[in-house]
Every structure is written in C-alpha cells, then in structure tokens.
Please model this.
Amino acid sequence: MTKSSENVRRMVLCAMFTALVAVCSQIAVPMPWGVPINLALFAVYMAGTMLGPVWGTASQVVFIALAAIGVPVLANFQGGPSAIFGKTGGYAIGYILTALLTALLTKALGRKFWSLCVAMVVGCAVCYVLGTIWFMVLTGLDLPTSLTYCVIPYLPGDVIKIALASLLTIQLDKRMPKI
Model:
C-alpha cells in the first residue's frame, strides 16, 4: 500500500469513527437533570484503541468541531455553541482526551482484555473529571450533588461499555489489518 493510499485509509477510518460517535450519541436515555445516558463513550474508546493516538484523537476533534458548528451530533440531536458550552459540554470535549489517553495507554500496556479495560477506565475518569468540573461551574452545584447527577448513575453502564469495547477491540484485532 502506498503512503498516499494509507493516508486515505486512515482518513476514512477517522471519518467512520466520527460518525460512529455521532450515531452512538443518539442512542440515549434522557435523565431529569439533563445528562443523558448514551453510548458515545463506547465509540470513543473504540476510536482510541482502533485508530491510535493521532487518528483516534483526530476523530474526536472532528466530532467536536461538527458539534460546534451546529451539526446535531450530540445526544438528543443537539449541536451548536450552546450545546458545546452548555452544562454537558465538558463531557463532550472530554471525548478528545478520552480517545487520546485510551490510545496512549493501550499502546503502553498492550492489547489484552485487562490492559484495555485499564486504559478505558483512565480515559473515562478523565472525561468524568473534566465534565463534572464543567457541570459544577455552570450549575453552581457542589461536588457531591454533581457526582450524584453526573457520575454515580452512569458507572454500571460504563463498566459494561468498557468490557464490551475491550472485547470488541480484541475481536477486531484478529480480523482487521493494522494501521
């Protein structure tokens, strides 16, 4: 494969993972306090593990750029500056760091189930820290209340997403050529 065709392949995969995050964002359950349960982080983990640090991060930068210019890619078909800078915007922006850290840690720790899980847990934690701080600043709520709204109800689902993303990464590794 030529260098040019390899770059095209990477750009196409980057676009596909951007689209996957957009689709997974719509698979959402709204919550009364405004932070929906969705599958976006599952796709972000996959972008990090399958595309690596550069292209996985790029896919999330493109996702946030699309949201910022008004494309309704965020949960509940939201987009635009008000969505990005709204109370859940910190979580969406956290996708960039989540993909980067998941990819870097996967590279450092290896691609076994438990090492993938560790990489994804760290990525998830960083997303939660950034998003929760952002949520607290915009809502004026204290840390315990914010954790109750934004973190604790989502942990069981995140365990499932991380386990499934780790298993899927291992299965895709067996079937896809390396990039």
User: Anything to note?
Assistant: Residues 11 and 55 are 8 Å apart (CA to CA). The chain has a mean pLDDT of 94. The two ends are 11 Å apart (CA to CA).
